[in-house]
């Protein structure tokens, strides 16, 4: 047995730049970079083929970059504890280095197993924060300033003298089919890898982002004007600190110019910077309270919706984009094919499922998790519950799908792109095709109930029922008492101007904003 090896365990941090565990491990001796493909994880109900394909592309990129540094990445497929045990038996694992992870319940339990293995085998496990999430946080007071301090630290870089561990042959990176995953065609999803992430960051800060503050809400413009950095941050191809500091650099450059020279960049970058502050804010909530993933944040909403008896017909119509509401269907179909959607449209989809369709957020949340290439559990489950009205501390916003259609796609361009059944319907009826007469439907080749489905519900009637039901739950003194406790634990302490907060608060992972009354 050797004197022992230092294993750097890569998880959702697929880069070598600004990677503290890797740098710290090299200071302790020879390093064995390790990534474990965990088949059990990729069979979970919140994972998907599109997510794995993106991850695999990031892994190929990471392998190439580490090879250039003389630190080959060892890929193994299996159970992390079994693989660590094998390495320990063959070489002796002296230390294990990794980033902290705030993932779903499965990754939490897996990390618990690794901690127990490390303790049993007397292997020191060094874990480092990847961004501004704080383990064992006592309260939120002062948290925002700590985030600013962390993001202001210089990115840590690997020295050229890094020494590789024992010569090990890596397993091939498997395909989704080899992992037993279901087919998940997503032809227009983003490509994974750090190099692609850097290109996306550069294009946003140099050209695409100049009208970000104006164009992030409409799906017609959001695909180009939003940063599109979310999957690269979610899987760690880019560090959040890199993104924050690149944004701050761009802001500094813009401030050196006159207002006429800078154009809309000042407002755009200010909006984007404000949103970056919220990335870790939401992940911190899941870190502090894992129930966000599987239980109502406010228990006063327990048994309000039936979690066990999901209306299969409504769920299928919603997931496939056949609800009879053109804008809702266009958004879902776009998500199915691209793996991405801007925040306002994500919020509308979740709101429609929770309020108008009255489906339990857990099942619909899992569905959306699989569809989002940029799935980040901490942000996702927070937003799912916020848009379902179950946090007890956020304003209940029931999106009107017809109003959103008029507001965000006034001429029906987005609808016609993704719902071709309606391509011949004119602007007068494109948002509410059910209002056409039978003769008008035949003239445009779109008979409701045949070429395009009838509305699955009456959205106004369904919204009234949802609003009444929810507000009835919120009337009691006990409800308000629990809501106050939730706000004390999870509420933001960040002091942002009211105008900025109302307009820009959000997160890069899903281009979050706080929508006005909808």
Can you offer a commentary on this structure?
The chain is mainly α and 518 residues long. 48% of the residues lie in helices and 6% in strands. It is built from 24 helices and five strands. The protein has a five-stranded parallel beta sheet with strand order 3-2-1-4-5, sandwiched between helices. Strand 1, helix 1 and strand 2 form a beta-alpha-beta unit. Helix 12 crosses helix 24 and helix 13 packs across helix 18. The longest helix is centred in the first third of the chain and has 20 residues. The radius of gyration is 24 Å and the shape is globular.
What would you say about this model in short?
With 518 residues, the protein is mainly alpha-helical.
Molecular shape: globular
What structural class do you assign from the helix and strand content?
Answer: mainly alpha
Q: What is the overall pLDDT average?
A: 92
- Work out the oligomeric state of the chains in this entry: single chain
Largest sheet: 5 strands, parallel
Count of helical stretches: 24
How many strand elements?
A: 5
SSE sequence, one letter per element: EHEHEHEHEHHHHHHHHHHHHHHHHHHHH
- Uncertain runs with pLDDT below 50, 5 residues or more? 496-518
Strand content: 5-15%
Compute the CA-based radius of gyration: 24 Å
Proportion of helical residues: 40-55%
The side-by-side strand order for the widest beta sheet comes to: 3-2-1-4-5
């Amino acid at each position: 047995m050797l004197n022992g090896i230092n294993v750097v365990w890569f998880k959702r941090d697929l880069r070598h730049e600004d990677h503290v565990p890797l740098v710290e491990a090299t200071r302790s001796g020879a390093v064995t970079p390790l990534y474990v493909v965990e088949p059990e994880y990729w069979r979970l109900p919140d994972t998907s083929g599109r997510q794995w394909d993106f991850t695999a592309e990031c892994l190929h990129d990471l392998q190439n970059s580490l090879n250039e540094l003389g630190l080959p990445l060892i890929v193994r497929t299996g159970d992390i504890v079994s693989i660590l045990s094998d390495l320990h038996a063959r070489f002796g694992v002296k230390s294990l280095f990794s980033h902290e992870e705030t993932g779903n319940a499965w990754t939490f339990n897996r990390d618990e197993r690794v901690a127990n293995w490390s303790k049993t085998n007397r292997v020191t496990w060094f874990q480092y924060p990847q961004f501004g999430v704080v383990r064992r946080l006592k309260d939120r007071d002062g948290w925002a300033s700590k985030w600013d301090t962390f993001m202001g630290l210089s990115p840590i870089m690997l020295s050229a003298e890094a020494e590789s561990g024992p010569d090990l042959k890596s397993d091939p990176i498997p395909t989704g089919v080899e992992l037993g995953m279901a087919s998940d065609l997503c032809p227009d999803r983003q490509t994974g890898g750090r190099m692609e992430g850097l290109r996306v960051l550069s294009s946003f800060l140099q050209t695409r982002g100049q009208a970000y503050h104006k164009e992030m809400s409409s799906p017609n413009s959001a695909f180009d004007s939003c940063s599109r950095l979310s999957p690269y941050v979610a899987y760690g191809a880019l560090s959040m600190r890199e993104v924050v500091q690149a944004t701050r650099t761009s802001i500094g450059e813009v401030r050196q110019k006159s207002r006429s020279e800078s154009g809309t960049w000042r407002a755009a970058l200010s909006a984007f910077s404000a949103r970056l502050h919220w990335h870790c804010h939401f992940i911190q909530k899941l870190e502090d309270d894992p129930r966000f993933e599987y239980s109502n944040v406010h228990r006063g909403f327990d048994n309000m919706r039936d979690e066990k008896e999901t209306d299969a017909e409504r769920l299928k119509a919603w997931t496939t984009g056949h609800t009879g509401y053109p804008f809702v269907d266009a958004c879902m179909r776009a998500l199915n094919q691209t793996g991405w959607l801007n925040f306002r449209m994500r919020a509308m989809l979740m709101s429609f499922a929770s309020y108008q369709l009255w489906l339990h957020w857990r099942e619909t949340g899992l569905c959306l998790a699989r569809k989002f290439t940029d799935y980040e559990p901490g942000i996702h489950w927070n937003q799912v519950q916020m848009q379902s009205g179950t946090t007890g501390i956020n304003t209940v916003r029931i999106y009107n799908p017809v109003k959103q259609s008029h507001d965000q796609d006034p001429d029906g361009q987005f609808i016609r792109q993704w719902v071709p059944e309606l391509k011949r319907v004119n602007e007068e009826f494109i948002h509410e095709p059910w209002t056409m007469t039978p003769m008008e439907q035949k003239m445009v080749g779109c008979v409701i109930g045949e070429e395009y489905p009838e509305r699955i519900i009456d959205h106004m009637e369904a919204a009234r029922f949802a609003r009444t039901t929810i507000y009835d739950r919120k009337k009691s003194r006990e409800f308000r008492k629990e809501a106050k406790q939730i706000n004390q634990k999870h509420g933001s302490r960040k002091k942002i101007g009211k105008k900025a907060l109302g307009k820009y608060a959000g997160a890069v992972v899903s281009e979050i904003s706080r929508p006005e009354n909808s």
